[in-house]
Amino acid sequence: MANIERNASAVWHGTLREGNGKMSTGSGVLREVPYTFATRFEQSPGTNPEELLAAAHAACYSMALSAALARKEYTVHHIQTTATCVMESQPTGGFKITTMRLVTRAKVDDVSPDAFQTIAEETKKTCPVSGALAALNFELDAALE
Length: 145
Known about the structure:
- The chain is α+β, with helices and mostly antiparallel strands.
- The chain contains four helices and six strands.
- It folds into two domains: 8-41, no CATH class; 49-144, GMP Synthetase, Chain A, domain 3, CATH 3.30.300.
Protein backbone atom coordinates (compact mmCIF):
# COMPACT_ATOMS: atom_id res chain seq x y z
CA MET A 1 0.00 0.00 0.00
CA ALA A 2 1.24 3.49 -0.83
CA ASN A 3 1.92 6.19 1.72
CA ILE A 4 -1.16 8.07 2.85
CA GLU A 5 -1.15 11.85 3.16
CA ARG A 6 -3.92 13.97 4.65
CA ASN A 7 -3.97 17.72 5.09
CA ALA A 8 -5.72 20.53 6.83
CA SER A 9 -5.17 24.25 6.93
CA ALA A 10 -5.80 27.12 9.29
CA VAL A 11 -5.61 30.87 9.11
CA TRP A 12 -5.50 33.27 12.07
CA HIS A 13 -6.25 37.01 11.97
CA GLY A 14 -5.30 39.47 14.67
CA THR A 15 -3.97 39.10 18.18
CA LEU A 16 -4.25 35.97 20.28
CA ARG A 17 -7.09 37.20 22.52
CA GLU A 18 -9.05 39.39 20.11
CA GLY A 19 -8.32 37.56 16.89
CA ASN A 20 -10.08 34.71 15.18
CA GLY A 21 -9.31 31.96 12.77
CA LYS A 22 -10.79 29.38 10.46
CA MET A 23 -9.70 25.83 9.81
CA SER A 24 -10.48 23.47 6.96
CA THR A 25 -9.68 19.89 6.07
CA GLY A 26 -8.53 18.72 2.68
CA SER A 27 -11.56 16.43 2.41
CA GLY A 28 -13.89 19.39 2.88
CA VAL A 29 -15.60 17.82 5.90
CA LEU A 30 -14.49 20.88 7.86
CA ARG A 31 -14.70 23.99 5.76
CA GLU A 32 -13.68 27.33 7.27
CA VAL A 33 -14.74 26.27 10.77
CA PRO A 34 -14.21 29.24 13.10
CA TYR A 35 -12.10 29.13 16.23
CA THR A 36 -11.13 31.82 18.72
CA PHE A 37 -9.26 32.32 21.97
CA ALA A 38 -12.57 31.82 23.78
CA THR A 39 -13.32 28.47 22.07
CA ARG A 40 -9.89 27.22 23.02
CA PHE A 41 -9.30 28.62 26.48
CA GLU A 42 -12.67 29.75 27.87
CA GLN A 43 -15.18 27.00 27.02
CA SER A 44 -17.14 29.10 24.52
CA PRO A 45 -19.10 27.10 21.95
CA GLY A 46 -16.99 26.08 18.97
CA THR A 47 -14.05 23.85 18.26
CA ASN A 48 -10.33 24.02 19.01
CA PRO A 49 -7.16 22.11 18.15
CA GLU A 50 -7.28 19.96 21.31
CA GLU A 51 -10.83 18.79 20.61
CA LEU A 52 -9.86 17.83 17.06
CA LEU A 53 -6.78 15.99 18.34
CA ALA A 54 -8.98 14.07 20.79
CA ALA A 55 -11.45 13.20 18.01
CA ALA A 56 -8.63 11.90 15.83
CA HIS A 57 -7.27 9.79 18.67
CA ALA A 58 -10.68 8.35 19.61
CA ALA A 59 -11.40 7.39 16.01
CA CYS A 60 -7.97 5.89 15.37
CA TYR A 61 -7.91 3.93 18.64
CA SER A 62 -11.36 2.44 18.02
CA MET A 63 -10.33 1.32 14.53
CA ALA A 64 -6.97 -0.06 15.72
CA LEU A 65 -8.61 -1.98 18.58
CA SER A 66 -11.16 -3.45 16.18
CA ALA A 67 -8.35 -4.60 13.89
CA ALA A 68 -6.37 -6.09 16.79
CA LEU A 69 -9.39 -8.02 18.05
CA ALA A 70 -10.21 -9.26 14.54
CA ARG A 71 -6.62 -10.53 14.12
CA LYS A 72 -7.27 -12.70 17.21
CA GLU A 73 -10.51 -13.85 15.51
CA TYR A 74 -12.92 -12.14 17.90
CA THR A 75 -16.19 -10.78 16.53
CA VAL A 76 -16.50 -7.06 17.26
CA HIS A 77 -20.00 -5.58 17.39
CA HIS A 78 -18.97 -2.07 18.37
CA ILE A 79 -16.26 -0.06 20.08
CA GLN A 80 -16.90 3.38 21.52
CA THR A 81 -13.95 5.49 22.61
CA THR A 82 -13.97 8.91 24.22
CA ALA A 83 -10.63 10.72 24.23
CA THR A 84 -9.92 13.66 26.50
CA CYS A 85 -6.98 15.86 25.61
CA VAL A 86 -5.56 17.55 28.72
CA MET A 87 -3.75 20.86 28.26
CA GLU A 88 -2.10 22.26 31.37
CA SER A 89 -0.94 25.73 32.25
CA GLN A 90 2.83 25.80 32.63
CA PRO A 91 4.65 27.53 35.53
CA THR A 92 6.85 29.39 33.05
CA GLY A 93 3.81 30.57 31.09
CA GLY A 94 1.85 29.14 28.21
CA PHE A 95 0.18 25.78 27.93
CA LYS A 96 1.28 22.24 27.13
CA ILE A 97 -0.73 19.20 26.11
CA THR A 98 0.31 16.63 28.70
CA THR A 99 -2.18 13.78 28.77
CA MET A 100 -4.63 11.88 26.64
CA ARG A 101 -7.32 9.90 28.46
CA LEU A 102 -9.05 7.13 26.55
CA VAL A 103 -12.27 5.55 27.80
CA THR A 104 -13.29 2.61 25.64
CA ARG A 105 -16.33 0.37 25.86
CA ALA A 106 -16.75 -2.55 23.52
CA LYS A 107 -19.13 -5.35 22.71
CA VAL A 108 -17.07 -8.31 21.53
CA ASP A 109 -18.10 -11.96 21.34
CA ASP A 110 -16.25 -14.66 23.29
CA VAL A 111 -13.35 -12.57 24.61
CA SER A 112 -12.47 -12.75 28.29
CA PRO A 113 -12.06 -9.49 30.21
CA ASP A 114 -8.36 -10.29 30.75
CA ALA A 115 -7.73 -10.98 27.07
CA PHE A 116 -9.59 -7.81 26.14
CA GLN A 117 -7.49 -5.74 28.58
CA THR A 118 -4.27 -7.17 27.15
CA ILE A 119 -5.31 -6.38 23.58
CA ALA A 120 -6.54 -2.91 24.57
CA GLU A 121 -3.21 -2.10 26.25
CA GLU A 122 -1.24 -3.39 23.26
CA THR A 123 -3.39 -1.27 20.96
CA LYS A 124 -2.61 1.82 23.04
CA LYS A 125 1.01 1.32 21.95
CA THR A 126 0.36 0.48 18.29
CA CYS A 127 -2.44 2.87 17.29
CA PRO A 128 -0.93 5.29 14.71
CA VAL A 129 -2.24 8.40 16.46
CA SER A 130 -1.02 7.09 19.82
CA GLY A 131 2.41 6.73 18.23
CA ALA A 132 2.31 10.31 16.98
CA LEU A 133 1.42 11.44 20.50
CA ALA A 134 3.98 9.23 22.25
CA ALA A 135 5.37 12.13 24.30
CA LEU A 136 2.07 12.38 26.21
CA ASN A 137 0.95 10.50 29.27
CA PHE A 138 -1.73 7.99 28.32
CA GLU A 139 -4.53 6.83 30.57
CA LEU A 140 -6.71 3.96 29.37
CA ASP A 141 -9.97 2.75 30.86
CA ALA A 142 -11.10 -0.14 28.67
CA ALA A 143 -13.96 -2.51 29.47
CA LEU A 144 -16.39 -4.85 27.84
CA GLU A 145 -20.09 -4.05 27.92
